[in-house]
Every structure is written in C-alpha cells, then in structure tokens.
Design a protein that fits this description.
The chain is α/β, with parallel strands linked by helices and about 250 residues long. It has nine helices and nine strands.
Length: about 250
Amino acid sequence: MGKLTIKVLGLAAALGLAAGAAAAAVSPRIQAALADPSRPAADKARDADRKAAEIVALTGVKRGDNVADVFPGAGYYTRIFAKLVGPTGHVYGVVPGDLAERGFHPSDLVKKLAAEPGYQNVSLAVDPLTTWAPSPKLDLIFISQFYHDMHNPGFGGPDIAAEDKGLFNALKPGGTLFIIDHSAPGTGISATATLHRIDEAAVKSELNAAGFKLVAESDVLRNPNDPHTKMVFDPSIRGHTDQFVLKYRRP
C-alpha cells in the first residue's frame, strides 16, 4: 500500500506551483474513536489495511458535524464518525432506496446500528440522492467504494449529473465531499458494473462539472501491484485494491 502522502490543492495549484505534501494529523480523539469498546473486533482488525486513522483525519470531521455516510454497509465508518461528532452532531446512514444486496436490505443494517447503545446520533436516510434535502445541510458527505455504483441501474444511475448535483445541494457551503473508490485507469465509467471500479479521471470530471472544488488527494490506499483487471471481489485482490482518495469542497 502507498505511504500517507496528501496533495494539498488550492492557491499553490492555481499559481502553477508544485502541490505540497502534508500528513493529516491523527488526533487523540480519532485514536479514542478507533479504540472505542463498542466497535466490533472485526472492524478493528481492518483498521490497518483501511488506513482508517489517516482517512478520518483527512476528512476533517469534527464534533457537532452533520455527516452522511453513503451506502455504509454494516457501518464501519458510521461508527467512527458517530463517536467523533458526538451528541451534538449527527450521522446519517444513507441507503438511497430500499436496495437489496446479496439477500439482505442494507437499510436494516443501519437501523440495527442506530438501535445500539451509544449510537443515538445515527439514523437511516433513504431519500434519493437527487432530491435529498437534509436540514440542516451537511458538513461532510463520505462515499467509500460506492461512487462507481452510482452509475449503475438500481443504485441511482445512470444520470450521474443529477446524483452529483444532489450531493452538492445537500452540503452546506464550505462542506466536504470525500470519495474513496477502486481504480480502473483509462476505462472511464465502462467498468462500474463489471469490475466495480471507476477511472479516477472520470470521477474528477464529473465532480468538477457539478461545481465541486478538489482540495486534496491522497495515495494512502494506493497499491501499484493491483493489475486493475480483476473484479474487486476476486479473492486475489479483495481488500487490497488500488484505491484513490479525493477530498472536494462545495464553494
């Protein structure tokens, strides 16, 4: 996996200067959230591979924030965000529609987590991303390994422009859109359903068109040994795909 290098974009890039490298500080609060005894042991066992501390630090999430974790699965990141935003913040587990996947309904997993002690600040949101209007608007939208599926029928696609505009409208000005996804260089959006991958360049083009501004990117989840030709669930690469990390801001 790649080392933690974050390209910080903005004025330097606008001036044509080389993007600087910086490390997102992992605060004691993040360390405490990862060590929280309510987190399942299986989640904690994945922290090193998922570079959870570094990823969460880069999001900039803070106490009192309103966060959307889009298609959060069993709530790996939802749990961490819930502890970091605290009782004055809120975390939505967003399942856009009652979508069935491999025999279960993802919305049920969010409901189960929200019912656990200590997670009263978690709730399910099932509105389509194109029309969702959270109140108050969000500080952070976090999409891990799902943006590619937003192109696919049954998961919101194929009108990605409307999906992205919905994300833009759900954020408050200055809010953050954070994307992690499986890389498929040079493929555009042709591998979103077959390999469950997407071309980073395509994602950047789509989000730029929606009005988002790229402010940082990281190679912390890069894997140069990934051939990019296998489905992400293939046992030979699952859990170790080459992934890009992009941090956007709504102006």
